[in-house]
Design goal:
This protein is an alpha/beta fold and 316 residues long. It has 2 domains: 210 residues, Rossmann fold, CATH 3.40.50.300; 53 residues, no CATH class. Helices cover 50% and strands 12% of the residues. The chain is built from 14 helices and 7 strands. The relative contact order is 0.12.
C-alpha cells in the first residue's frame, strides 16, 4: 500500500488534502487513490445543510463543529461555494467563517467550487466524502451553496438533511419551501431572536403536518437557533443523531449507503464511457460523417445519438 494511502487511512490531513486536490483536478492518481481507499469507506454519518442564502448556514455549521468536538467526535466539513468566474475556484467564504477550528486536528474543512454544477453540490463532492470517510471522520457535513430551488441534490446524498430558514424573509423564501419541505429531516429556524421566529416555526410545523407520512415514519423536528450566540445548537446535533438511529433501527442507514455507492458507480461509468466515445472516435470516418450530418441538419440530434450508441463497435 502506498505511503500516502496509509497516511490517509491514519487520518493524515495533508495526505487527504492531496488526494482531494487530485480528484478535483481530474488527476489519474486521484482515481488510483480512490480505488485503494474504497474498502475502508461506508462508516461516516453524512449530514447535509441547505437553505436559502443569508440564513446563517455557515455560522450554524461552525457551532455544530464545536458541539460535536465537545462530544469527542471527529468532524469534516465540505463547504460548497459558488465558483469564481475567473478561476473556477471556490470563494472560500465558508472556510474563513469557520477559521476558529483551523488548529483542531479533529476537524477538516474543505471549500469546493460548484464549477457550474447545479444542485448545490460540486461535481466531485461524493468522491471527496469517500476520502473523508476513509480518514475516519465520524460526521461529514456538507454545506450547500444556498442559491435557490436547486438545493435538493444533497438530500439524495446525505443520510440526514438539515433545512435552515430564517424569520421574516418574505415571499421569496416562502416560495422555496414547497421543494425544501420535501427533503428535510431536521428543520432549523435560525436567527431566532428576530421578530417572527415563533410564527415561522408554527408555519413550518403546519406545513409539515399536511405532508405527514405513515405511522412509524420519522417526524421531522422544527428547532430554533441563534447561531451567532451558539444557542440551540445542542438540540440540532441531538436531532441529527436521533435521525441516524432511526435509520439504523430500520435498516435504512445501510440501504442509503448502498444506494449512494450505486449512484456513484453509475455516474463514473457514464463519465468513463463518454470519455472513451469522444476521445477514441475522433479518428473515425463514420463518427466525422455523423457529426457533419448533424451540423447540416441531415439528421436530428436524437437519432444521431441513438445511432452512435447503437453502432459503438463500428465508430470506435
Amino acid at each position: 500500500m502506498p505511503t500516502d494511502i496509509k497516511k490517509i487511512l491514519a487520518g493524515d490531513q495533508l495526505a487527504g488534502a492531496r488526494l482531494i486536490r487530485q480528484l478535483e483536478d481530474g488527476d489519474p492518481s486521484g482515481m488510483a487513490g480512490l480505488k485503494t481507499i474504497f474498502a475502508h469507506t461506508g462508516k461516516a454519518f453524512i449530514v447535509g445543510i441547505t437553505g436559502p442564502a443569508g440564513s446563517g448556514k455557515s455560522t450554524l455549521v461552525s457551532h455544530m463543529i464545536t458541539e460535536c468536538r465537545r462530544r469527542d467526535l471527529k468532524v469534516a466539513v465540505v463547504a460548497v461555494d459558488p465558483s469564481s468566474a475567473r478561476t473556477g475556484g471556490a470563494f472560500l467564504g465558508d472556510r474563513l467563517r469557520m477559521g476558529q477550528h483551523a488548529k483542531d486536528n479533529g476537524v477538516f474543512i474543505r471549500s469546493m467550487a460548484t464549477r457550474g454544477h447545479v444542485g448545490g453540490l460540486s461535481t466531485t463532492t461524493r468522491e471527496v466524502v469517500l476520502v473523508l470517510d476513509a480518514m475516519g471522520y465520524d460526521m461529514v457535513m456538507i454545506e450547500t451553496v444556498g442559491v435557490g430551488q436547486d438545493e435538493v441534490e444533497v438530500a439524495e446524498f446525505a443520510h440526514t438533511t438539515i433545512v435552515v430558514s430564517l424569520p421574516g424573509a418574505g415571499d421569496d423564501i416562502q416560495a422555496l419551501k414547497a421543494g425544501l419541505l420535501e427533503i428535510g429531516d431536521v428543520y432549523v429556524v435560525n436567527k431566532g431572536d428576530l421578530p417572527g421566529a415563533d410564527n415561522e416555526v408554527a408555519r413550518l410545523k403546519s406545513m409539515l403536518q399536511m405532508g405527514q407520512k405513515g405511522e412509524g415514519s420519522w417526524s421531522a423536528p422544527v428547532l430554533i437557533t441563534v447561531a451567532v450566540k451558539g444557542e440551540g445548537i445542542s438540540a440540532v446535533v441531538d436531532a441529527c443523531w436521533h435521525h441516524r438511529q432511526h435509520l439504523r433501527d430500520r435498516g435504512l442507514f445501510q440501504k442509503h449507503s448502498e444506494q449512494q455507492t450505486l449512484d456513484l458507480f453509475q455516474r463514473l461509468v457514464m463519465d468513463l464511457v463518454g470519455d472513451k466515445i469522444f476521445n477514441d472516435s475522433h479518428a473515425s470516418a463514420a463518427y466525422q460523417t455523423l457529426l457533419e450530418d448533424v451540423k447540416n441538419r441531415k439528421i436530428d440530434v436524437v437519432t444521431a445519438a441513438e445511432h452512435l450508441v447503437k453502432n459503438l463497435h463500428v465508430i470506435i
